[in-house]
TrEMBL record, chain A:
Taxonomic placement: Bacteria, Bacillati, Bacillota, Clostridia, Eubacteriales
InterPro entries: CO_DH_flav_C (IPR005107), CO_DH_flav_C_dom_sf (IPR036683), Diverse_Substr_Oxidored (IPR051312), FAD-bd_PCMH (IPR016166), FAD-bd_PCMH-like_sf (IPR036318), FAD-bd_PCMH_sub1 (IPR016167), FAD-bd_PCMH_sub2 (IPR016169), Mopterin_DH_FAD-bd (IPR002346)
Domain of life: Bacteria
Protein name in the entry: FAD binding domain-containing protein
Keywords, comma-separated and alphabetical: FAD, Flavoprotein, Oxidoreductase
Organism whose genome encodes this protein: Caproiciproducens galactitolivorans
Residue stretches making up the FAD-binding PCMH-type domain: 1-175
The keyword Oxidoreductase appears for this protein: yes
One Pfam entry name: FAD_binding_5
Gene3D superfamilies attached to this UniProt entry: 3.30.465.10, Uridine Diphospho-n-acetylenolpyruvylglucosamine Reductase, domain 2 (3.30.43.10)
Presence of the UniProt keyword Oxidoreductase in the record: yes
Signal peptide positions (record): none
Automatic annotation (TrEMBL), chain B:
Keywords: 2Fe-2S, Iron, Iron-sulfur, Metal-binding, Oxidoreductase
Residue ranges annotated for the 2Fe-2S ferredoxin-type domain, each copy included: 8-84
Record field: transmembrane: none
Protein name (record): (2Fe-2S)-binding protein
Listed PANTHER family: OXIDOREDUCTASE WITH IRON-SULFUR SUBUNIT, XANTHINE DEHYDROGENASE SUBUNIT E-RELATED
InterPro entries cross-referenced by the UniProt entry: 2Fe-2S-bd, 2Fe-2S-bd_dom_sf, 2Fe-2S_ferredoxin-like_sf, 2Fe-2S_ferredoxin-type, 2Fe2S_fd_BS, Beta-grasp_dom_sf, Diverse_Oxidoreductases
Species, as recorded: Caproiciproducens galactitolivorans
Keyword Zinc: no
From TrEMBL, chain C:
Keywords of this entry: Molybdenum, Oxidoreductase
Official protein name in the record: Xanthine dehydrogenase family protein molybdopterin-binding subunit
Annotated Aldehyde oxidase/xanthine dehydrogenase a/b hammerhead domain residues: 20-124
Superkingdom, taxonomy of origin: Bacteria
Pfam families with a match to the protein in the record: Ald_Xan_dh_C, MoCoBD_1, MoCoBD_2
Amino acid sequence: MIPFEFDYYKPATIQEATEAYCQLEAAGKEPVYYGGGSELISMARLGNLHFGSVIDIKAIPECKVLEYDRDNQLVLGSALTLSEICESKQFPLLEKTAGRIADHTMQCKITLGGNLASTILYRETVLPLLVADSRITIAGKDGIRDFPISRIFDKRLNLPKGSFVVRVSTEKGVVGSPYFHIKKTRNEKIDYPLITVAGIKTSGRLRIAFSGLLPYPFRSIKVENILNEFDDETVCAMEVVNFLSDKILSDINGSSEYRKFELKNTIINVLETMKDV
Amino acid sequence: MFCLKGKSLITINVNEEDYELLIRPSDILLDTLRNQLGLTGAKPGCNNGDCGTCTVLVNGWPVKSCLMLTAEAVGKKITTVEGLKAAPIQKAFIEQFAFQCGYCTSGFLMVCHALAGIHPDPPDIVIDEWLQSNICRCTSYEEIGTAIRTVLDGKIE
Amino acid sequence: MGSIGVGKTVIRKEAWEKVTGQAKYTDDFISNHILTAQMVTSTYAHAKIQNIDISSASSLPGVKAVLTGEDYPVLFGQLIEDHPPLARDKVRYYGEPVALVVADSAFTAAKAAAMIHVLYEPLPVINSPLQAVDTNAPLVHEKMIMYQIVKEDIYPNYDTNICDQKKIRKGDAEKAFEQCDVIVEAAFHLPQSDHIAMETRSAQARIDASGTVYIKSASQSPFSIKKIISKIFHLDQSKVIVEVPFVGGGFGGKAPVQLEILAYIASAAVGGRAVRLTNSRENDIVSSPCRMGLEAKLKLGASKDGMLQSVQMKYLVDTGAYSDIGPTLTKAIIVDCTGPYKIDNVHCDAFCVYTNHPYVTSYRGFSHASSAFCIERMMDKLAQKLNMDPAELRYKNALCPGCTSPTQVKITSSNFGNLNSCILKLKEIINWSEGTRMKVEENIIRAKGMACLWKTSNSPTDAVSGVFLTFNPDGTINLNCGCVEYGPSMKTTAAQILSEKLKMDINHISVNMDVNTKYSPEHWKTVASMTTYMLGRAVLRAAEDVIRQLTSIAAVALHCPREDLEVAEEKVYVRHDPSLFLPFKELVHGYKFLNGNAVFGPILGQGSFIMNDLNILDQETGKGKSGPFWTVGAQAVEIEYNKKDYTYRFIKAATVIDAGRVLNPKMAEGLIKGGMCMGLGLGSRESFSYDEEARVLDTSLRTYKVMHFGETPEYLVSFIETPQIDAPYHARGIAEHGIIGIPAALGNALSLAAQAEFDELPLVPETIWRMKTGGIL
């Protein structure tokens, strides 16, 4: 039960959505875009979030696409549920990553765009997109624009006010790259990560992105350089640990020391499994 | 554009029947099912999407109704445990002693029913993934696993 | 498809209601007229309440009342009356109810609750039982001396945080240690955790024009609710009527009374209108009572042949902010403190201490899952030091007829069963002889650990049960009893026992699934694995009562002596000529002669039961009898441990219980397996963590983790049947026991696998990593 009232809008087109946002904003109706809604509802119930209107983007056709476009880009609509993405089996690394977010039933509700825009610090769906150099298409009052993910995602999705993610596009070659995904939790499979890594190997180089380690998900070129430069797995892992060391989270799921241990093991594990790929 | 401003009249389809209801746009589907339709089979267990006792089917897929707005259900087909018509999984749960207190049962039944419909021959890992969405505090889960497998194996009429 | 009697698998009577959504639980009873109450809870664990501003909340349209602790300055408690329904003057734990809003809808109630502002002045917190017993520790209850003590065997230490102390003095422990060849010592730390019944606690109340109070509640103790509410608010017990429909899991957490009192004062504040109060999951975890924490120090000595000689123990039970059942949890520890082993010299001190943690109550296994962890880890430590097989050590020392318990109760085959048979059977099913620690591949170790268990009831010495039987004109029976159906299938068990006694089809016995204190005979509480014993005895007496009546009527009708008559298959027949019989339907509503004359009347059967040879334990020595029997068993856990990343997974969990007699095999197996699953959760993941201000951090199921599907091992369950002579069809209680030894067996398996001593719970990989590496990368 949400202890406040708001209005509900379900636009059928991108334009309707952005116009509704502008009008509601101007009218003081504190609009928010609404995807799966699980996070908005749970935060609103606990009084941690307030809004005056929601704009549900699930009826916008562009937000539900799941196809390759003419440029051989895999296009995923932001309102696709994690389950729809997994069942489609189009993007193996994203499938693996999404399949470990919350639980299966929740994956039938959580959307790609919702997870990317989440305020909870993990946002694990961004990891495959970061390493795949995906492009993110957003819509706002200035129309529809397209950004490389590195431009628009730094720690969190930095959307211009009033805009929302329409779709995510990823090059076919990258989508099919050899990949890895490791998620470590305290002791229960369905939990927030102590550490999640996701990455690919492309043109002989490893790319890697992290969640759970710092208070935000990130891809680090410096870490990738370390991974690709050292021969000895343990030396390499310790280099990565030392590089990230002073920023690593400590919370009820695990201390920073333990996360470092998990990071070290995970890096060694990644290097070993990806060595001959 | 479909919109609900303040208390509004909507129609939702639950268990193959249309219901016209007056709701707030902020109403949660679980509360509407229970308080307005008297369908109390879906249970509140955490209202946070963590336990699965409120699971219903939306167009055949399991969804935690505690994290869904009633407004979102417009145009969808909602199935609750009351809408199961002698589904094999119900009998399997009884025969396998797959419940004790019965409070999580509706949610588990809905997940199992959806799974059997969508993936009639799933590998074990898929069964695990689907059923990990729910918590049972009485049984050991083994009984629930046996129940869904007897249904998937067609060992129950 | 009729089924008669005990010993075979019977589907629970309410099965179809539960798979169709028709089974109604407390909060499923919703009407348009009912008001909703919501609590406002403390944001501090220990603080003075300086001011509560309810003005804006009270003036919100739809708000019918706002209550604070000042409105009902009463105290309640089942042992010590130390607990205000809403905090007064100060709060003692994070999540404590401080105000209650009553409104026309949940929506308005939540809105109003958010508008209540409480001003606190923080006080220093007691964040562990050890802190609680520090000299100069701040007091959680400054005026303990003013509290009413309800039960005679509570021994508080005023002006400290100790609300009760229990002792065992048997033999001379100190002297016996001098004779020991081997001594082991260890300290144990077991945190609080929570029941997590899937249905959160929920209560409704209304008061009618005559002043009669109606409570509907998700409770294991409807009759306690009646007594406590009538006592606090000075009402005749006949004016408090409690109804309990299906309950969605209890595990002991729904045995105490809390929300019912709040619902009552809420209703009273709005002129008796019906009010519902249901916990959010967050409140259910933190505001309502949880599972005890425990700190312990043990010293155990043996001679070199492995015979236990002496034990010394000190326990601190973390009862949290209020005592609730804490003193009885403490008593239960001392009663069974040695584990099911023969130790002639015992020195045990157990203290029940207040802290600023959430208050605690009964939990599946009562305090045994905690105390068993301590003693069973000690047994493995001792076995290691003696270089003896841990199973052998347990077998050698198992209690047997002729021994006495720590409280000096004589052990008999009937009151104890056969632990050694359980140990032998366990070794067989878990394949103990293949080895308990094996390398299965690089870095992977497979290990087995075991633990024994025993538990008795610790019920009041005058706990009661009762049964009424009425007949329908067609000869079918209605069984009316006061036990609550919250999962373990007690109603079906009652029907099975009646069916066995009357040799009649169980499908022709209907049992009330709900309890209503107005119509149902009192059953103490549906707790302590005592229902089969207590209710079963009452059922048998009621059955004898109707048999006597049936045969008396039939003797007249069939013109034969009563003693020649038998009852079976819903008939009364002549033993030496079964063709002479009368069906129940011709007897149960009186007997009508051919000419129309009728005699006798409807048969009304009744049976009642009271515990009869229990007593209060001696304050100094602990001597006395606190339960009618024990249930004993042996358990094992097999794991695969990964030496590289310090993780492990469950392979097998096994239990052998001496059930006396298994009444409903598949149900019995399910109860044991469910208990094991919960025990694995306690062992591997469940616990409260607190911040430095004693605030619980795991307040939702997002962070408080329980076992899930697919994470569980293969379960092995086996039963030994050593008759308990005084029990219904010789059956012991078994509902709690699956949990008791599992955390210990896991601790033993993991200690063996990782070759480190794990004396705390839960055993998460980080704990193992820290223990093995000292936390160094």
